[in-house]
Amino acid sequence: MKRQIAVLGLFSALALSAFANVFDYDNDPGGGYQFYFPGNVNRLVLDDIVRATDLPVKQINVVVFNNSGAAQSIDVVVYDADPVTGAVGNLLATANFASVPTGLSQLQVAGGPGFLAGKQNLWIGVRAPVNLFGMVMSPNPYPTIGSSQDLFAWDQNGDGTIGSAEYFWFGGNPVANFAIEVMVPEPASMIALGTGLASLLALRRRKR
Fold first, then answer.
1. Backbone angles phi and psi of 96, in degrees to 5
2. Is the pTM of this model over 0.85?
3. H-helix or E-strand containing 77?
4. Which of these, 1, 59, 42, 49, lies nearest to 27 by C-alpha position?
5. What are the residues whose beta carbons fall under 8 Å from the beta carbon of 180, sequence distance 6 or more?
6. Where exactly are the structural domains of the chain?
7. Buried b (16+ CB within 10 A) or exposed e, 44-72
8. How does strand 152-154 pair with strand 167-168?
9. Torsion of CA 49, 128, 69, 38, to 10 degrees
10. DSSP-based helix, strand, coil % in the chain, nearest 5
């Protein structure tokens, strides 16, 4: 019985690790940045993205530039897109970063089981308490995985919402620098897990 419990514990651990980390949105070249979009004091700036899947999200990477001269406490926010108009919809998540240093930083928003599952069209952005802080624009004209329009949302009047006149198009299709990582079952690990569980059941049948 003790052996069976130990074996079952082993396969439970395998089940938790039987996932491959895969990007379903990627526009993070790792360098070559030239521009950023500062939103002004406590004003949202958001970019639209379309993920390649609607799987639960493990992590969102957002590259920002802090030109304010001091570390800042800022929020990364995630909204869904209105299913009819594509406009900024409902707030889904807010992650606070208490001390973002000056210069370039990659912020990592941790997800978890069920996080953003079923949400393929999103708006992601930042809100900072100073003028000279914003999302970095990728030098890539298009994401390598997923898609994004030549469109940003900016709370220009500072009322905390995105109005119909607060969507902006830019020439050259600039896209904010995001990457989204999801967890998907890894076939080799799942096959090993299934084989192990089948062996365990066979062992129990023989002992009876």
1. -95, 135
2. no
3. strand 72-81
4. 49
5. 23, 24, 25, 26, 49, 51, 57, 59, 60, 61, 146
6. 1-18+186-208, 20-184
7. bbbbbbbbbbebbbbbbbbbbbbebeeeb
8. antiparallel
9. 50
10. 20, 45, 40
CB 156 within 8 Å of CB 37: no
Q: How far apart are CA 107 and CA 94, in angstroms?
A: 13
Q: How far apart (Å, rounded) are the C-alpha atoms in residues 123 and 194?
A: 38
Residues paired with residue 136 on neighbouring β-strands, in sequence order = 36
Q: Which residues pair with 74 in a beta bridge?
A: 97
Architecture per CATH, domain 20-184, reads as Sandwich (2.60)
Per-residue pLDDT reduced to its tens digit, 13-58: 444 455 667 999 999 888 788 889 999 999 999 999 999 999 999 9
